[in-house]
Each structure stands twice: as structure tokens, then as C-alpha cells.
Amino acid sequence: MSAFASFEVARRATGARWILVLAFGVLGSAFFRAQIIEHDRFRVEAGSNRLRPITLPSPRGDILDRNGLPIAENIPGYSIKLLAAREDSLRAVLGRLLAYVPADSVDLELTVRRWRAATFQPVQVFASGEDRVVATLEEHRAVLPGLVIQAEPRRTYPHGEAVAHLVGYVGEISESEMKSGSFGEAGLGEMVGKQGLEVEYDSLLRGQQGTRYVEVTARGRTVGDQANSGSVRPIAGATVRTTIDLPLQLFIDSMWRADMPEKRGAMIAMTPKGEVLAYYSHPGFDPNAFIGGISAEDYAVYHEDSNHPLIDRVINGRYPPASPFKLAIATMALRRGLVTMDSRMPVACSGGLRFGNRYFKCWKHTGHGSLTLAEAIKTSCDVFFYQLGQLVGRDGLLEDGQALGLSDPTGIDLEQEKRGAFPRGLKDYVNSRGLSTWSNGEVLNLSIGQGRNTQTLINMVSFYAALAGDGIKRPPHIFRPRLGTRSYDLGLKPEQLVGLRRALSDVVQSGTAGASGGREFDVAGKTGSGQVSNQKDIGWFIGFAPADSAKIVVGIQVEEGEHGALVAKYVVRAIGRYLQGPGSPALKSEYQPPLSEDTTPAVDPLAPDTTRATLRPPAATPKAAGRRPGTRR
């Protein structure tokens, strides 16, 4: 071999050695960096590849009544979840899962959507409180890779429909709710309030979720828990202690179901200061059916029911307030100094009042004669209040309607309350063509609780709570008053309040509610029956007791077919239950119908209409549109 060839071989060998040295140097430095310098970081990353976080839901805070009795609480339950690396794997396991659980408990497409939103976390398939279902799944864990069964608190409502509209229910947060931020930092799969107190105080009740980790194989199979791998315990939500008197709430429910199971309506009780003692709407729904998601079939039953059980008639039902509204007219006249309790109107009641070419009738066809304001309240004389409304005048009615909060929501601490529909001004009487629909006869209709005037039960009872108390109409509350809510001063002097209470006491002692049994508890109140075109009457009674130092104010509204004089007994029974407890004689006595029909016919349809009275208020909630003038007591 030539010298040149030998040199070339040596040069190449040296180059190869340096290449090998450099390669091993790079590998060595990489190993040193990975195993020594960045050991902690890679250890965490390796752990994250085998450890999957699982959210631990926080126990939701209990909702209690004023005595500490449970309205909503938690019981043990289970959440069934799956870990899957791919969508096809998830669908395959879901298909096997259906063989061991009720078919309607699993929504395949919803589960897949949940998985797509967080592919590296266990996806919730369904929640269950049945040990049998959990035991079955445990037995077949071998064919259900990625199965995670997690014990977690499950919401329950021990009294079901009796508290449905009061407490509401919980459900899984929706994508739209997460995007809107209406529930703060609540994440996918978290249970949040949907109605009632559950949604109103969700931020207090929900608490803070925790985290635990499970070890999985490369194929996604669960190996076991890793309790020492940074697990965080959940923080339970706060307990909400309400003003509700649960025994009274349940008494009202049992009374309604026993005497009026087919009647729609609502009932509410509160103190004169606005503390809500009972909150009831009928028919109701089972809030337990909504926990974990209600099936489409079950929801359709509620949604398609002609009785509309999902509607909260306490705050969302608007109806002609009828004769109980006459006390608002009396308040307007008294606060303006136009009358006293002994004032009489120029025209005595002879069964009706001629206004223009139209004849507005009184419920008593033979007439009441000449009455004072106190006597007119006792007998509910329409003719007296027709004239009293005219005395206050159109502008006075519209102005004082705002001053008394008749066009505003009460501000009760529940969402979605509707405001009263008393006109805010003449702008409410302008049609789509810009023409005024106001007529002079509208003053007469408004004066007896008809016309373009619909009210919620909560607003009317709040007004009577002010009459029963210190003359201040306060926002009612179930847990605590809402910030920014407004109170309304009725503007009445103490002696005027006393006069109105005595007149309302006479209604029960010997007036239109004389057969209610309220004398025993010194109940004061007002009956009424609002009229709706082509429908049966809306029965009202709002009462409080004792008359001169009220401890409780109760109102009832019953749709279709109950006169105010007939529903008064239910308010009396609720008052008796609260004041004396079970066994009160008033709860045992049989109700006797009133001696008179006490009805107000509609305006004579044959009389010419020269006043262009607008008699139909705008549609509101169910059964509130198309009313005709006139009331029943």
C-alpha cells in the first residue's frame, strides 16, 4: 500500500472516531439533561401520561326552612364515567354498556359531545343512585375498559311537588351557560341551579370542586386510584336557611290536593315585613325527575300538559286583580286627601251607574244604597268605586299606580318574576297605528280591578302586607332581600291604615267573606273574582290576622270556576294552621256558602258605546287575556 493510501485510511479513521465521540457526547449530554437537570419536569410529564384527573363534585349546600327542616339536601349517589383515547373506542364501550343499564339512562350523542370537549378527561355517561346498577357494572368491568365509578352526593327534594316552584331543581351546565359566564367558573359536567332558589343562590350552594387522579394503561384501562398524587378535596357549598315555614308549606299542599286537585292556582304567605312563609303553585312538577337530566319523553309530558305545571303562578301568572284592587283605589284617594273612611259618593248605588250612554252594573242588582268608604269595602260595592276612581281621575290613577309599585316587579329573591301590567301612562293606550285607544270608561274598569290591569299574586299580597303593617310595601324575600330593590310608601297616615284594616275586618266578620270561618282568628281581608272572556272566573282572597297586629298575610288565586267568597276558607285555614298549629277548630269546620251570589255582571252588551272604553288588556300569562268588565266578589 502506498504512503498516500495509508495516510488517507488514517485520516478517515480519525474522522470516524471524532464523529463517534461527538455523537456519544450529544447523547450523553441529552441523557444527563433529561435524567439529572430536568428530572422533575419529565417525571411530572410521565406521570401525566399515566394519571388522569377526575373532578370531585362538591356537596351542594342544603336548603332549610326557618326551623332547620330540609327542603333540599344530598344523598349518596354515583357518577358513571368513561376514559377513552379515541371516539371509536368510546362508542364501542358505550355500546357494551347499554347491555347492563336501562337504555334511556344513556344519551350516546350527548356523551360523545362531552368527550370531544375534553378528550383527556373521563366523560360522564349518566348518574345513578341505584346500588344495583353500580354492582352490575362492577361485575362486568373487564369488558368495559376505562370505566370509572365515582361516589358523589346526589341532590334530592324530600317533599317533591310540594316545594317544586319554590326550590326549583339542578341540572348539568349547558354549553351556552358556560359561554355566557352566568355561572362564573363552573365547568363542563358541573351541576348548577336551573330554577327557584337553586338558581337564585347557586353561587352559595355550589361550593368548590376537588380533583383526584386514577392511573391508566397506555390503552386507557383504569389501574387504580392515586390518592397521594396531588388530590384536592372538594369544598362543600354553604347552607341556605330560608324564611319558609315548611309545616305550613306542606299543609297548604295537602289542603289543595284534598279539596282542589284539578284547580290551577297559587298561594303565598308572608309576614308584614316581607318574610315569605309559604310559596305554592299548583299544579307542580317533581324536581327529583330533573336531577341528572330528564328524558325527552318525561319532559314532553310536562311541556304538553294543558295545565302548564312548569309555570310558577305566584310570580309569573298575571290575572285581573278584581275587588282586592279596590283597596289600591281607596289608598290612592286617601293619600290624596280626597276622601275619609266616612265619605259617601254623590250617587247612591241602585244596582248600576250610567256613564255616558253606557250602564256599568254593580254585582248586587238591587243596589247597596248610600255607603261610606268603609261600608263600600265591606260590601264591595262597584258603584261606589266607579265614582271613587273618577274622583281620583285618569292622571291620578296612572301616577299613583307607579307610586304604589303596581307596574313593577316586587323584587322577590327569585328569578324571572313578571311585573304587574297596570298602565304606566297614556303611551300604553297607543295602538300599532299610533292612535290612542284610551276611553273615559277605562277609569271605571280600572277602579274595580278590571280593564287593562293584570297583577301577579305576589304583588297583590305584598300590597296587602303593607296595609297590614306600617304602610311600607317592601320587597318580599325567602332568604335575604335583593340588593337594589325598592320599597314603596303607601303614603297613608296611621289612622287611615287603621280605618282600612277595620273595613277589611268587617268583610270577614259580616261581609262578602262572612262564611269563611275567619272570625275565630280575627282575619281581615278582601274577596274578589276577576272575569276573563269565554272563561270561568278567577277567584281571589287576600287576608291577614290578627287584624290590628298582623303576624301573617296570605293570598290565594284560583283559576277557572271559584268565586272569591268560596276560596277565602283556604286562606283562613292556612292562617289558623300558622297561628295555632294542627288541630285548630278552623281546620275542622265545614265551609258554608255565602248567602248572596255576590256577582258582578258584565256591561250591558246592548247599550251603545259612546265612551269607546277599552275593555281588553294585552295578553299576559295563561288565562289572563280577553277579560270582560265587571267583577265578582
Characterise the protein shown here:
By secondary structure, the protein is an alpha+beta fold. It is 34% helix and 17% strand. The chain contains 19 helices and 22 strands. The strands form 7 sheets. The chain has a 6-stranded antiparallel β-sheet, sandwiched between helices. Strands 2, 3, 4, 5 and 10 form a 5-stranded mixed β-sheet that branches. A 3-stranded antiparallel β-sheet has the order 1-8-9. β2 (63-64) and β3 (70-82) form a beta hairpin. α3 (87-97) packs antiparallel against α4 and α14 crosses α15 (441-447). Mean pLDDT is 84; it is low at 584-632.
What are the key terms here?
34% helix, five-stranded mixed sheet, six-stranded antiparallel sheet, 633 residues, alpha+beta, 22 strands, disordered C terminus, 19 helices
